[in-house]
Design a protein that fits this description.
176 residues, alpha+beta, 4-stranded antiparallel β-sheet
């Protein structure tokens, strides 16, 4: 009796499953690194977009004859209008409004900082989902256990942390 068997034996199936498990074990950690890099890239891109919006806003204010003093603009998600500076001054209020007009993504960020001189935007930093991004000097970041960049020297809740983050964005270094 010649019986023709169609299909795979149990041993063959176990070998294939073991090979797939080893391949998955090798690929998953490297894929997680790409996810982390994509998150860092996205937050740095948000900083670049905010910088472009701030530059456009500053240029538009200049053409309207509105002078803006050198200062840091601070955006915090939990504030009523978002901007944590003396927006009762018409120039600052106009700048905040124009930034929002040219980059409505600022509404989605947890926080943002813009260092503005009298005629240019010199540095921008953002916080989004516990990750920090900066422009023109991008954050590189180090991955923590939860997968996010959280440098304790940067903190949007206090002026010292804000200055450090803007110093990094402007110069690529921090005065400790």
């Amino acid at each position: 009796m010649n019986k023709k068997v169609n299909g795979f034996t149990l041993v063959e199936l176990v070998v294939v499953i073991a090979i797939l498990g080893v391949l998955a074990g090798l690929l998953v950690p490297s894929m997680l690194g790409y996810v982390f890099k994509a998150k860092v890239s996205a937050v740095n891109s948000n900083a670049r977009n905010l910088s472009k919006a701030a530059i456009t806003s500053l240029t538009e204010l200049d053409t309207e004859g509105i002078a803006l003093s050198a200062q840091n603009f601070v955006w915090k998600k939990d504030l009523a209008d978002g901007w944590d500076n003396k927006t009762n001054h018409s120039a600052e209020a106009a700048m905040a409004s124009k930034i929002r007009k040219y980059y409505n993504g600022v509404e989605k960020l947890d926080g943002a900082l813009c260092r503005i001189t009298t005629n240019s935007v010199v540095a921008v930093a953002v916080e989004d989902n516990s990750m920090y991004g900066a422009y023109p000097n991008k954050t590189q970041g180090s991955q923590t256990e939860d997968g996010y960049v959280k440098d304790l020297r940067f903190n949007l809740e206090n002026a010292n942390g804000q200055e450090r983050l803007l110093d990094w964005a402007e110069n690529g270094e921090i005065d400790s």
